[in-house]
Amino acid sequence: MTAQERQIGRVLRSTTAGYTVGCRELTAEQSRPMPEFGQLVKAQMLNGDTIYGLIYCVTIEDDAFVRQLVAAGVEEAEFIEDQRQRRQVPVVVDVLTVGYGRGDAMIHRLPPQPPRTLDPIFACDGAEFVRFTAEPDWLRIVLAAQDAPVDQLIVAALRAAAEARPADQRQPYKVAAGRELARLLSLDIARLDGILRQLR
Amino acid sequence: MCENLFDDVGGGLTLELNKVTMHLDEIGRIMAERHNKAQQRSAQARALLSEHAEVTEELERKIARAREVDEWRRGAIPRGRRLDETAAAPRPPDRYTLIAADGSQIYPDRHAAASYFLLNTGAIVFRGGTGQAPTIYSEPEVFYADEELYDENHEIHGADYVSAQRNRREIEALADRAEEERAALGGDVSVPIICVLDGPLLPWMRPNPEDPQAIDAEIAFFVQQLERMRRAGAIPIGYVDKPGSANVLRILELIDTPIEQITRERLREGGFIGLADRMLFGELPPAHRTGLFEPNSNTNDRYQYRSGGDRITFAYANMARDAGPGNAAIARLEAPGWVVQDPAKLDIALAALYANCEPVRYPYVLARAHELAVVTQAEKADLESMLAQTMLRNGIMPEISFKAANKLLTAHRR
After folding, report:
1. Are A78 and B134 in contact (CB < 8 Å)?
2. Given pLDDT bands bounded at 50, 70 and 90, which one contains residue B9?
3. Domain ranges in chain B?
4. Does A163 touch chain B (CB under 8 A)?
């Protein structure tokens, strides 16, 4: 792992199609919030494979204590920071698996095994995001997802993937991705139009 | 359908509510009657307090006499010249540190598969006025070695012993954190450090006829820890929420009793038995406290002896936001005598605690210390499952008693 990659949390439960991660808090370091909708994350498997996934839901859990503080209108920073940083009320992150890496190859299919309970999950750096999204086949997996907000996820991930590229490559990347989406959604023009409008 | 019906009858209902419901009206009627009587009697007590608030020399003699004739009477000695004194909390200091500690335990259980007991001590250091997240601590300890688990008669330690060990860790955690905090402040004593225990400041122990001095050992330990806090410039406070104590009412009972008629029998009939002092002080304005009283108790005497003359002192305070008896949230604040020698110190502690009560009408730090300490049933079950696995790995078949096994079978009713 490089210095750019940071752990966002650990696996709570998983399937080959996706997994749920528990993290202690929302953070914003190096001007980038974590965990973030559409962010590419990864888990390292024992056989050396790397499982890649896209964050499609971030849930901040509550409990009766938090609700009581909200009802009381608490404003003091000490109480708020205690709840955010110290209490064991995790941020729950749902991840859609979109492929895996084996050696130098990026494979846009579901992996043979899911990550294990308590495996650490890391945010990918820009270079890895670029490598993973060099070919557009991962879009097919996202489009087939059942529980994720698919269209929004595609837009967020493509925008992030474009942002990870040098400035002169961003627009060509988006155009190429748009062409691939047009092919995959040729029977649903209204939906395609919605995605492309948000991608611009 | 039939199977479900059968299951409901066979596996579920052991409390036959239909046999209880016939009593509910009667329970409600008796509770209302009891409440009304308590209201009337507490009104009488308040009237007596306002008419006879002065602490006369005669009253002081009666208090001394009552203690002589009934050693176990839990009265109080007023430190001021009036019983109805009040004081307002000042604004909380710009910066203050509140430290709270709480403990919980898994008691030894001879019916369980493994012989052990567990203590978990939670603590929080809340630095008011800094905007920082507090620092939290949670220290679990498991006791399983022979010398930890068995007493000198080779019997497994009972609940009283484990509770005493838990109490020790709570007060020790406060002293540890207070010393660390003062050191972290570079010895700056302008930032008050208030250390809060949930409950009375001194430990309570069931009298043990076989070891009447056991309580002295515990009090001696508390004296040492309180002394550490004193050296760290900290203010130890025992915070009793919704106190059931009636020490001031015990004083009021003496007002109309001629001193020569003070006998143990007369005292134990007491005109205000069943009431609590908090009913006397429901009209305290928010963020105000009563005057100071010393518990006139055997435990305080033992503390005085062990501490070289100090006496624990208490006051009641209203921690509510809104005025009026219906809104009152009376708490009892206990502090060593060396704190209240300068009442301003107690008032700083009151101010800090009152500010800390805002979110949950109870000191936030105590709620969090409890949360950090508490061992839930689910956590206990997880620990015992891991213990059973480790016993299996060591070639021992974990066995619980037939009683415990049957409790498990019947505990999960539908």
Report:
1. yes
2. very low
3. 57-373, 377-411
4. no
Distance from CA of B248 to the nearest CA of A (A): 33
Q: Find out whether the peptide bond into B236 is cis, omega within 30 degrees of 0.
A: no
Which alpha helices (H) appear in chain A, and where do they start and end?
A: 64-72, 77-81, 126-132, 138-143, 150-163, 167-184, 189-199
CA distance A98 to A51: 8
- CB neighbour class for B193 (10 Å; exposed up to 12, middle 13-18, buried from 19): buried
Residue identified by tokens 């080779």 is B154
Q: What amino acid is encoded at B405 in this protein?
A: A
Cβ of residue A68 closer than 8 Å to a chain B Cβ: yes
Q: Do A65 and B358 touch (CB under 8 A)?
A: no
In tens, the pLDDT along B280-302 reads: 998 999 999 999 999 988 889 99
Angstrom distance (rounded) from CA A22 to CA B18:
46
Q: Give the pLDDT band of residue B151 (cuts 50, 70, 90).
A: confident
- The alpha carbon of residue B281 is apart from the nearest alpha carbon of chain A, in Å, by 25
CA–CA dist B241, A4 (Å, integer): 50
Nearest CA in chain B to A82: B133
Residues in chain B: 414
Q: B170-194, pLDDT tens digit by residue?
A: 999 999 999 999 999 999 999 999 9
Residues in chain A with pLDDT values less than 50: 1, 3-4
Residues of A in contact with B375 (CB under 8 A): none
Distance separating alpha carbons of residues B282 and A13, to the nearest angstrom: 52
The complex scores an ipTM of: 0.74
Compute how many other C-beta atoms are within 10 angstroms of the C-beta atom of residue B186. 6
CA angle B100, B102, B106 (to 5 degrees): 165
Average pLDDT on B133-150 reads: 93
Cα torsion at A158, A163, A166, A170 (round to 10°)?
Answer: 50
Cβ–Cβ < 8 Å for B25, B229:
no
Given this model, what pLDDT does residue B13 score? 62
Q: How confident is the model at residue B3 (pLDDT cuts 50, 70, 90)?
A: very low
